[in-house]
Specification:
3-stranded antiparallel beta sheet, 3 strands
Length: 98
Amino acid sequence: MVAALGESYDALTRRRENTMARNATCIHRWVLGEPGDAGIEAHCRRCGAQRTYPSGIEPPEDDQPAAVPDFTAVIEVEEVNLTELARELASSRGYALV
């Protein structure tokens, strides 16, 4: 926080405390800056709070590549006789199919 010209230390402290109180109750609306190596700087357009977002996806902590699911398994499907299934459903509800 930058002090205004001629602003006393007490006034700066009060302004800082007011800003902190607003930040605690603010539902932030972040305005993002340009991405950089250190991250993406952002500020809240409502209360002026500042933060830094990461500029990329963080690598896994163990530095191993992420596990890729195995989609090569073949799923076996049981053959279903739809006519027979419809008859069973109808009879379970008290109807008869002709």
